Amino acid sequence: MRPGQPARKRWPRWARRGLLENVAIGLIALGVLMLVQPVSITLYSYSFVTVLAGTLMFTIVSKFPE
Predict the structure, then answer these.
(1) Which residue, 7, 19, 27, 52, is the most exposed by fewest CB within 10 angstroms?
(2) Could you list the pLDDT tens digit for every one of the 66 residues in the chain?
(3) pTM of the prediction?
(4) Do residues 65 and 9 make contact, with C-beta atoms less than 8 angstroms apart?
(5) φ and ψ at 7, to 5 degrees?
(6) Within 10 A of 50 (CB to CB), how many other CB atoms are there?
């Protein structure tokens, strides 16, 4: 680091892209499973919201540093 340059802050380990991308992918997969299951209308009702939340999370997290 050169004099006069601010120190680079490191992101916390839990806020790195790898872990949160995997969580987002899991959320999308969970939403799809909720969509295709034949048992509960409540799970089916929340499936779109779950897939949407996972997709938005993936879009945001993909901008995080590794």
Answers:
(1) 7
(2) 566 666 567 777 777 788 889 999 999 999 999 999 999 999 999 999 999 999 999 999 998 877
(3) 0.77
(4) no
(5) -70, 140
(6) 19
